[in-house]
Design goal:
With about 290 residues, the chain is an alpha+beta fold. The protein is built from five helices and 15 strands.
């Protein structure tokens, strides 16, 4: 069974205190109908309450403020360790916790991925931002027990026009994904609009790594692919919270993981890669971006 049986006059599973028939009965019936049509559907665990979304929103405000501080200070000649220091110090000052630090033995407070590094770059005093670099700063904040996750791209010095275009185009892909995030639509709607735009501009989308549910934990269901088709994958129901974070390569989609640190992902062909990330909630009328 998709959900446990709940009587119409029983308290709703969401904790609102209302009777089920006055709260989520119609919601659950829509989900059951989609499942009968063969679609993947969210479980109750994947649906956040308004109070939980409030908490994720507050975490998002802290996360945004940390990324704003990075944006104000990032510069040519800075080491990625200095970026990590900014993130660590600002997060602590704002009352948050850096989620990446010690997560599955990740050694730093933020991910900094330069040029052909697709994601999970580890900050270091040895990595200096050089003229023409593009760098992704991926920040996840825990605030009062809630998680928010977002990343931004930064262009350092005189960036080649084609590399700047890659950065801008991936941001446009995320914006298009946001517009496709609608109640009772599908995750595949987001995947297709992103992949179509990538292909139209001569890029490739990384297949193995995608977005994820977030909010109560760092990584939750659903997993979000960007090589899916419209009308497929999970049904989007109000209360779902996940990231949109396509990783897009200038060259081929193949990637590999650095054997030395078992974290940093590189493009196989050495081409540059870009990623923007938002945390987004599906609402009754559309969506709300909670962190960017």
């Amino acid at each position: 069974m998709l959900f446990e049986k709940i009587g119409r006059n029983d308290p709703c599973w969401c904790g609102s205190g209302k009777k089920y028939k006055q709260c989520h009965e119609e919601f659950d019936n829509k989900i059951r109908a989609a499942k009968l049509r063969g679609h993947k559907v969210p479980t109750h665990k994947m649906i956040k309450t308004p109070e939980q979304i409030d908490g994720i929103r507050e975490a998002g405000k802290v996360n945004n403020a940390v990324l704003d501080e990075v944006a104000a200070k990032i510069k040519l000649g800075m080491t990625t360790q200095e970026i990590d220091d900014i993130v660590s110090e600002t997060t602590k000052k704002l009352g948050g916790i850096c989620a990446p630090l010690n997560y599955e033995k990740f050694p730093k407070s933020v991910c900094t991925s330069i040029n052909d590094q697709v994601c999970h770059g580890i900050p270091s005093t040895e990595d200096v931002l050089e003229d023409g670099d593009i760098v992704n700063v991926d920040c996840t904040t825990i605030y009062k027990g809630f998680y928010a996750d977002a990343s931004r791209m930064f262009c350092i010095g005189n960036v080649e026009p084609e590399d700047k275009k890659l950065v801008d185009d991936v941001k446009e892909m995320v914006n298009r994904g946001i517009k496709e995030t609608k109640p009772w639509g599908y995750l595949g709607d987001i995947g297709q609009v992103i992949n179509d735009y990538a292909k139209a501009n001569g890029y490739s989308v990384v297949r193995e790594i995608g977005g994820h549910g977030v909010g109560l934990e760092f990584h939750e269901d659903p997993w979000v692919s960007y090589v899916t088709r419209k009308g497929t994958d999970y049904l989007l129901a109000p209360g779902m919270v996940f990231t949109i974070e396509p990783m897009v390569n200038f060259g081929e989609p193949e990637v590999y993981v650095d054997e030395d640190n078992d974290w940093t992902v590189y493009t196989e062909d050495g081409s540059y890669s870009a990623q923007w990330e938002v945390t987004i909630a599906v609402t009754e009328n559309g969506n709300e971006v909670l962190a960017w």
